[in-house]
Amino acid sequence: MATLYRYLFADLLTNQILAELPLTGVTFTEQLNVAGTFTGHLLLSGIDTAGLNVNAATIPGRCAIYVDRNGELVWGGVVWLREYSSADQRMSLTAREFLSYYERRRITDTLPYTGYDQLAIALNLMNYAEGKPHGSLGLLFNQDPGSSSTSGVIISRLYYNYELKTIFQAIQDLSKANNGFDFEISVYYDGSGNPAKSFNTYYPHSGTRYDPNNPSIPVFELPGNIVEYQYPEDGSKAANEIYGLGAGSGFGKLVEIVDDSTKLATGWPLLQEQGNFTDIYDPALLTSITQGMLNATSYPPVTLKIAVPAYIDPVYGTYELGDDVRVIITDSRFPDTLDTVYRITAISIDAGEDKPERVTLTVTQGSI
Hints:
By secondary structure, the chain is mainly beta. The chain is built from 5 helices and 21 strands.
């Protein structure tokens, strides 16, 4: 079956559909616990721009875009950049997933949380943002059947109004703790066929974990269904001792130090780094976040990118962000075969138009 993409533009606050536009050159990315991006182009020559409501439907910071693939919403976000070139009469649009909106929303009241479940804090922060005048996107909460509202991880947190911390950063800091969680804003059609959005939290993580006895776990192979791959190993980002810097100043500054004693004992040189968390007053939370940072960087991070066709098993749509997958590669780089379980942390789609869809998966090991 041919793949049909539709691009629906809406008012960000009312969610009213303003236009459906024939974009080309479309690529979009979903990312784990980060706002993914969208780019596309609209050739204005030869189309009725007024009749299609192009100008009002693509206002940066005012409008949203939804990507429909064969009748299912697969991406949604905020239009942040619109650029027109008179030389080729082409309008270029850049959007980011709805989480990006909360990079522009700040905590303007002092919010104390004593003895709260970490997921309850995340959900409360989003409710707080939704409750401000002119600030509601009509979010629902934890509509994904796999999401969680409680984690059993009880923490205390205090956000001062003068810090003006962003909603997104506050939630992401919580998620990066040693016993943290995953979060997203998913898009889907509601029962009336209208685009809807849900803020979802997952504990301990989203997606399906690898089970060698489960034959449905996606497998990507070279030779096989992998078209090409990139395998960078970046030692400049590795650290085996991290100083977590919390609130305070001078001799009164809160500092927690964590290290990977196993790595150091087996001959690794000392590689030090620091994390700045100046709004954290709780030593236990600072230690947990610093430990999470160490878990992600103790070994030179490998962020493997594999390009696969959308239509070859496992087909696009049978795996999702957060899932574990098995990658098997035998070539000149891995003559003895790489056979490793990774986790999907980003999914990028080239919609193709005049060529087959192409999927690029970013997969990583460790606590991401």
